[in-house]
Amino acid sequence: MLEVKDVELRYGDFIAVHHLNFSIKPGEIFGLLGTNGAGKTTTFRVIMGLLEPTLGEVSYFGEAIGYHNVDEIGYMIEERSLLPKMTVKEYILYIGQLKSMDKPLILERLDYWLKYFDIESYRNKKIKELSKGNQQKVQFLSSLINNPKLLVLDEPFSGLDPINTDLFVKVIRDFQERGTMIVFSSHQLDHVESFCEKVVVLEKGKVIIDGYIKDVKDDFKKMTISIDADVDIDVLKELDGVYLVNKDSDAIRVKVESNEYVQGVFDYVKTCENVMRFEVEQASLSEIFVAKVGGAREQV
Length: 300
Ligand code: ATP
Prior knowledge:
The chain has about 300 residues and is an alpha/beta fold. The chain has 2 domains: about 1-215, P-loop containing nucleotide triphosphate hydrolases (Rossmann fold); about 225-280. The protein has 10 helices and 14 strands. α5 (about 160-175) links the parallel β7 and β8 (about 180-185). The protein is globular. The structure holds adenosine-5'-triphosphate (ATP).
């Protein structure tokens, strides 16, 4: 269990993270989201014990986290190819040894993962000679080499093609099943929505969304209705609770303030011809993110 309790982190006078609280249990995937500069990387460094919080504490299975926990942590940093002149093998040996692993075990796992990610032929190539996507695989592999109990992934999917994204997702899921605590950041909110249970969204170091995704969506209340029918858009715009109507290529999208206004839209659509579709959905995480970040900025 990892618990972040009322953590504040300052760089000099600048407060990069304010009063942050969350917890992750073994086998849980946790999403840490936010716009650029919101404080995600800083938070990662704090939860891994690399930066000391100026206030609050981070506990790892009941004890204060620190550098001594490094052997059980895997960290995929956002910047790629930190040591570009090393070969893949040298780099992974270096990372594995930093985590107190024996050389034969590192090499055994290296070969397993190189095969898994289909990059066996790059074993003795310098990292700088690899494509960006393959460098990313090496970076990911370096975070897995010690079979971590806590896996921290900063933007693991950025720049990956869909096939490799699926491969990464499968590995993350396998680690989840083994009980690893996983915390990751991503700007691709559809990924977050598809496999995280809990999220924290930071904006300028402050928490603006926090909790289980299901509860976050329930609390947001706003709904989207997709309609395929011969409707009059001007009539839809005037209905109670409707705040936006868009004509998309596949449907007309009507946004209502809450589910209590869905019936009014349905009653109108029933009077129209050629009704092929009437579908009600909760707002996506991406919509909630945009709305809340916008709201937080207006309050400044
Ligand atoms: P991005 O998505 O762009 O990677 P982030 O959410 O990871 O951003 P951080 O890197 O944690 O954001 O930075 C949070 C804030 O702290 C930013 O305003 C940044 O300029 C500032 N900051 C980060 N590192 C330092 C540092 N070493 N000294 C001073 N300020 C810093």
